[in-house]
Nuclear-interacting partner of ALK
Amino acid sequence: MMAVPNCEVSKPRRIKALLSSFLKGVSREEKKQSENKEVISEPTEGDDADGFADGFVVVDEISTEQSSTVQPLNQELFFNRVETFSISSWFAKPDEVSPLRCAQYGWENIDVDSLKCVSCKEILYGGLPPKWETDSYEKACKKLEESLKAGHSKICPWQSNPSPASFLEVNLVNTQKAVDDFLHRVASIRCFGTSIPAVDLSCLQQVQENEDVLSRLVTGVLGEEPTSDYKERIELVCFMALSGWSRSSPEVSQSPTMSCEFCRRNVGLWNFTPFEQNAKTTNEDESEPTAKRLKVDKGLFNPIEEHRSWCPWTKPASVTYTVRSLPQDKNQDNNTPVRPAWHGLQVLLHERSSPNKQGPLTNKQVTPPSQAWKAVRRITNFWQSRSAAQKT
């Protein structure tokens, strides 16, 4: 082997790059044999300041490893991290440290109350004291929330470059995408056929709606006029799609299974009463005591309660859509309660299907006064010029 001349640290890096071609490099396989070599230590007394030691080039493993794991804009990898969390290993945590929040900063769940960064491999313990110890519980929650950012190594990019906040919520800003996603979920659930479960519609009352809203979705959004026998079934399909459920990918399960994109919850339809069986049983047992009919209700699928507690579908969306009240409606309360995201989607779909209806869908943003004033001036100038032309 050719002798390597001694080079000063101040020499240009291109010279050392040339010299490195005569040196033996450490292979990736050798690096992977020891976890200690994932983080490069400070050079010792016998080492060159740039990482050259005894004829070896020390490879910066972090830079090559992070190039494949630090992809904050990759939504698929984001949900892969979310999917590592389970009820048994990340239980009863506040929304501030929900699996979505943890995945936003590059953490995945590796054990009970334990997180690991996919890039710097730091371990973060997330155990919390009992809730009845109010002061200590709140302090621990706050510290854990801060650790999602500060718990990384100093050179880890995740602490300053997390995934976008839009990954954590239902997108109601892009209305066309929201409509297309809804129609896609409807089409996927329809494929279940006779396996479609009977659905609990009681959650409609919590947002002061009734079953008529589902009928309007079928006729207005889907553009269908189903027969009486099929009408109720397609309404239930719309409600499940409205709540964020879709058919699971065949790669996940060959059995009839529905899943949520956000909370990664998978539910097997065999755990619920099929719609046709429930309708038949209800008609046959209308004269039976209430206690017997309640046994049938235990098998109903509740599209809202089946989500995990931190799922964005059950939380308010960042952009709240409201229906503009009519001028004569003076008794309407302007302080309307904040609705969950699934109900916001219902309002959006309803207004998109009836654009000529009074009370169009609007968001909280209003036209700037300067633009409004320019519009008034244009209208005024138009009528003034028209009046002058008529006089002449």
The chain has three domains: 13-59, 68-168, 175-312. Residues 369-391 form the longest helix (23 residues). Residues 192 and 263 are 22 Å apart (CA to CA).
